[in-house]
Write a structure and sequence with these properties.
The protein is mostly helical. It has one domain. Helix content is 69%, strand content 0%. It is built from five helices and no strands. Helix 1 packs antiparallel against helix 5. The two termini are 22 Å apart. The relative contact order is 0.15. The mean pLDDT is 92.
Length: 131
């Protein structure tokens, strides 16, 4: 269970550090990776939803056994972005930098699967006391 705690803590902190600045980088991203963003609602919607998932990862880090079922949608969240970046890159529609970000998500997805299987169902949580 220690593996899952550390993994989800790292994933949550990494995600917060990577995503929070995006709220202030819309125009810069449009310049660095043209064309400029034409639908800011998708941009900010993505950032907001992704940030919510980082909070879930931090909750998972606190008690992986208790929240083990949430690891399944956590894997899907990582696959959603990771696979999209690979496909878009192969279509020459995405920068190598963004592909790298997607590969990080694919690695995290694989590690989340490992955490799921290493966190046996029914394990006692830290807060459970015997006696």
């Amino acid at each position: 269970m220690k593996f899952a705690k550390i993994l989800f803590l790292i994933a949550g902190i990494y995600g917060l550090l990577a995503l929070l600045p995006q709220y202030f980088l819309e125009a810069q991203n449009g310049r660095n990776y043209p064309p400029p963003i034409t639908h800011p609602e998708y941009y900010y919607g993505f950032v907001g939803v992704a940030l919510a998932w980082q909070v879930l990862f931090l909750i998972l880090a606190k008690d992986p056994a208790r929240f083990r079922p949430m690891m399944i949608p956590a894997v899907l969240e990582k696959l959603g972005f990771g696979l999209a970046t690979v496909i878009l890159y192969l279509q020459h529609r995405l920068s190598a930098f963004m592909l790298g970000c997607g590969i990080v998500d694919l690695i995290l997805a694989a590690l989340f699967v490992i955490a799921y299987f290493k966190t046996a169902p029914g394990q006692e949580t830290e807060h459970t006391h015997n006696g």
